[in-house]
Automatic annotation (TrEMBL), chains A, B:
<dbReference type="GO" id="GO:0016301">
    <property type="term" value="F:kinase activity"/>
</dbReference>
<keyword id="KW-0418">Kinase</keyword>
<keyword id="KW-0808">Transferase</keyword>
<dbReference type="GO" id="GO:0005829">
    <property type="term" value="C:cytosol"/>
</dbReference>
<dbReference type="InterPro" id="IPR050397">
    <property type="entry name" value="Env_Response_Regulators"/>
</dbReference>
<dbReference type="InterPro" id="IPR018490">
    <property type="entry name" value="cNMP-bd_dom_sf"/>
</dbReference>
<keyword id="KW-0804">Transcription</keyword>
<dbReference type="Pfam" id="PF13545">
    <property type="entry name" value="HTH_Crp_2"/>
</dbReference>
<dbReference type="GO" id="GO:0003700">
    <property type="term" value="F:DNA-binding transcription factor activity"/>
</dbReference>
<dbReference type="Pfam" id="PF00027">
    <property type="entry name" value="cNMP_binding"/>
</dbReference>
<dbReference type="InterPro" id="IPR036390">
    <property type="entry name" value="WH_DNA-bd_sf"/>
</dbReference>
<dbReference type="InterPro" id="IPR036388">
    <property type="entry name" value="WH-like_DNA-bd_sf"/>
</dbReference>
<keyword id="KW-0805">Transcription regulation</keyword>
<dbReference type="GO" id="GO:0003677">
    <property type="term" value="F:DNA binding"/>
</dbReference>
<keyword id="KW-0238">DNA-binding</keyword>
<dbReference type="InterPro" id="IPR000595">
    <property type="entry name" value="cNMP-bd_dom"/>
</dbReference>
<dbReference type="InterPro" id="IPR012318">
    <property type="entry name" value="HTH_CRP"/>
</dbReference>
Amino acid sequence: MDNLLTRKLEIFAPLPDADRRLLDHTVRMARLVDGRADLIREGDDPLHVRLILEGFACRYKLLPDGRRQIMAFLVPGDFCDLHIFILRTMDHNIGTLSPCRVVDIPRTRILEMTERPALARALWWCSLVDEATLREWLVNIGARSAEQRIAHLLCELLMRLETVGLASNGSYDLPITQAEIADTMALSTIHVNRVLQRLRAENLITFKNGALVIPDVPRLKAFSGFNPNYLHLTERNGSKEPRR
Amino acid sequence: MDNLLTRKLEIFAPLPDADRRLLDHTVRMARLVDGRADLIREGDDPLHVRLILEGFACRYKLLPDGRRQIMAFLVPGDFCDLHIFILRTMDHNIGTLSPCRVVDIPRTRILEMTERPALARALWWCSLVDEATLREWLVNIGARSAEQRIAHLLCELLMRLETVGLASNGSYDLPITQAEIADTMALSTIHVNRVLQRLRAENLITFKNGALVIPDVPRLKAFSGFNPNYLHLTERNGSKEPRR
DNA sequence: CGTAAAATTGATCTGTCTCAACGTGGGTGG
DNA sequence: CCACCCACGTTGAGACAGATCAATTTTACG
């Protein structure tokens, strides 16, 4: 069975066996982290790159008045800080939402990876998809109603978790509180509560013992205006070199 | 005198003379584009990478109901679509705001550039700063008041334009309409108008024959909660290889 | 000059926030 | 094993930032 990192990177393109073996080796040394713990703080100059293997984490910034804005969800298979090779100093925080299993990948290992063309391109793909996701989140917060906004987030998480085998039949574990959804969607906790109630009343979502269930996925996607193109899950590039 | 692209890329690190010559050559063939014209549309598979040399452009997405959300401003020195090497299909549109001078850089030229270590890192830096800017915009739209939001945008543009020599003494040309600011900041045009009036009444900004003037830059930065760390303008990396 | 785009003004409406409670379930210590 | 407790979810009422609708004025420009 493929490890989670291999599975994630092969969404973009198949990898040579040697690369897959390197990834197997990379993923071996994981550690456990509590829920609600900071992995990296703004101002840090991290020495290695973190990868989430289990659990949910997030990127966030704190404002002077103590509010926080969550800018990204990190789910298993996601890198926390690939950019530290270029941008030494973190301009935001990364914290866990639930308890997580995390690997610390040494810089030398990442350099080794970037020397292999297929892996280098797969890492680049990760970084560009993160950026595309950020653009979609900006649209989400800027232009959609609270109901659509939250529905859109739930659709995105469904697709992302499906690609790493953590969701199926429109259902997945969502170990986060309404307050955390509020910090993500730029809404008050109270409003998130009311919106979730309405989504449940419309039977767009339900909760079955802790897990989110989306009874009719196409309906929720249509309701939220979800278009998965920004996740770039289908543009496989099997060649060893960029086209042309 | 350095060309604009060299100037922009050397914000990150000095470039070897050979690289600078390559950039001089790259920037030679520019073309003019009208204001309010699309450079690239969602769904396109662009053949070359576009670079803005003069004028303002933006990334945007259109919603089913016709509204648009602008997700980034592109100013002289900014690349439109470096990511097409990996993500073939555009997931958003790029359009000019004012008349622009644009270079179309062939894919082969970009490949040539990425084979030179200093240039490759400079291009990576551009892409990561774009991503960091997107995160800050998410905070801006999600967590700040309309007044702070617009003030923050004006502070960011001041800094970005200063780095390419297009702003000085807290003043720069801002060839965009209030409706465009509204599409950017997720506000109505009318509210943007009122907010700008209030900012002028507070003497936080003024307009002198078409140009924006910020009489007291530190005051506007403080007012908007502007922290330039996300632009990563000061972490120069002069070495030929990544540290460690 | 005439015209269209942009900026401005006023009045009203509404989605979301804030404040202030209250309910509830799972974990812990006595 | 029960009682307490704290985090989380829920409810109601009132306030407000910003949207919407409908004109009117100003500006840029052919």
